[in-house]
Structures are given as structure tokens and as C-alpha cells.
Amino acid sequence: MKVIINPTYHEINNEVAKNWESTRGEKYHEYRKKWVENPQKFLVERAPLHLDIEPTNACNLRCPMCPRTVLIQDENVEFKISTMDLEVFKKIINEAVSIGVYSIKLNWLGEPLVHHDIVEMVRYAKEKGIIDVMFNTNAALLDLQTSKDLINAGLDKLFFSFDSPYQEKYEEIRVGADYNETLNNIKNFIKIRDELKSNTPLTRVSMVLMENNQSEYETFVNLFKNIVDVVAYVEYREPIGKEALEYNPNFACSQLWQRMFIAADGDVIVCCVDSEKEYIVGNIHNDSIENIWKNEKYQKIRELHQNGRYNEVTMCAKCSLTERKEGGTV
Description:
Blueprint: E1 9-12, H1 14-22, H2 26-41, E2 50-53, H3 67-73, H4 86-99, E3 103-105, H5 118-128, E4 132-137, H6 144-153, E5 157-161, H7 167-173, H8 179-195, E6 202-209, H9 217-224, E7 230-235, E8 259-262, E9 267-269, E10 280-283, H10 289-293, H11 296-306, H12 314-317
């Protein structure tokens, strides 16, 4: 059976990223090799290769295509704001390093820069030995001091979300953000990085390609190609899946063999699109990463995907990723 690796970002300037990756150490390349091969071999190691750890599910913006916005606006959903305590985060990192986790991304539904300890989280993870530390940000809160502190803390990659090259359209999509301020934040971050003569973090800017902005992508590329290292787009998907899609017998979700998601309240889920937490496999306050990674519920969903029966899981049956066929990255 063929595993379809979930597509994520479609990148321009990808040679820059490849050249940057060529400077990483042996451990990094070991990690990236496993990222591709483990899902293809259905290989479950002692630990996930990568952890997505959510410092907070709070956000300063209300973007209409974001599942967080949809959930907040749904009167039938009780969306509780949660913030992860720094000591809880440190405990997660300590275990992660001890069992062989290579990489972390510090976000899920929320905006990482809302968390007042985000710089310390980056620093602690790097000092403990996580080889690849990254996060996505809308950059609206990325002031000069925070930029300098994140670079000095050792952040490896920073991914900016910026959905239109035009001010009016950008502010219509990124509700609550100021176009000029955010663009200047990104430019200033790169300037500080260059002044510090650091080759990290690698920077990428991306837009969600939707019906109302897809004609703008060329202009978007031209705006950013000489500012950041990599320019990308991600295909739009429905924020909250409502009904089952056409069954794809060749699909198995690569994330089940690559990564684990730890929400700000400690809930552990298996998939980036499970914003409604339909398939919780544990809670980090009650169990270890290692135990949860191989527990019965986690193994059950892997077994269903491996045997072409992902559609028996409600969450997976309505996931738009099942319709796609090309590969992708973290």
C-alpha cells in the first residue's frame, strides 16, 4: 500500500532552504530522513520525531479561514482559552530529549507570541538539545526586542503568515492586524538577524491560497522574494470538516508516524486538523509522551490507516488531506 505524505507548503526559493539544511549537522539529516521513511515503512519509534507543543490557544487576530475563529464564533462550542505553564513545558522538553524527539514546533491553534514565556521556551528547548525549534506567527506582535531575543535564544525556523500583498485585502483576511506594521516587523526581524550575523532562523512567508486572493500570488512572491528566505503558499481547506469525503483507498496519514500534538491544556491529539479534538489519545498531565505515543488508541488509528480503513474514523473521513496526492514538509 502506498502512503500519501500529507502536502503542506508549496515553496519558491526552495534552493535557499536546501542550502540552509546542508549546513545542519548529522542528527538533523537523520531526522529528515526518518521524516520521509518512517511513514512509508509504518515505523513507530520509541518517540515521535517531532512534537507540536501549543504554548497558548489565545490569538490576537480573528482570521476567517482559521478553525480557531470558526470555533469561537460557533454558539454550540465552548472554546476555553488555555495557556501552558512554563514548568509544564520544561517537563515535556525534558522527557522529549530523553526519549529521542528531534524537533518541536511551538504552536497549533494559537499565536505563540501571545505567550509571555515564548523566548524562554525556545531557549530552554535549544539548551536541552532539541535540534530543530520553530513556530508559525502572524508577526503582528513581533517587536524589535522580541525579534532580537528569539534569534539569540537559538530559534531555528520562523514561518510568517501573510495572506495578501495588498493592504486592504490583507487587513480583510488578517482581522486585527495592521499591514504596514506587520510588514515592517518582518523586515526588521530579517535586518536584526543579518546584523547579528546569524544564519538562523531560516525564514518563510506563506499565504493561504483562497478564491479571493489566488490571483495575487505572483505579486506576493515579488513582494517577499528579496525579504525572506522562502516564499510559499498553502492550499485552502475548510476550517472545520462537516461530512465525509470521497474515500481514497491509497491514503494513510503520515502524521501518525511522525508527530504528536500537545494542546495548551495538555490534551494530546494525533493530527493538525483535529481542531475540535475529536480524537484525544491522552493528556500530558496524566501520562508520559512515550506511553501515549504507543497506547491502544494511538495504535488503533495507525492500524486503520495502514490497512486502508481511515474512513472508519469520523475525523479522518471528512479530512480534505485525503484528497491530495503530493508530498510535503513540516
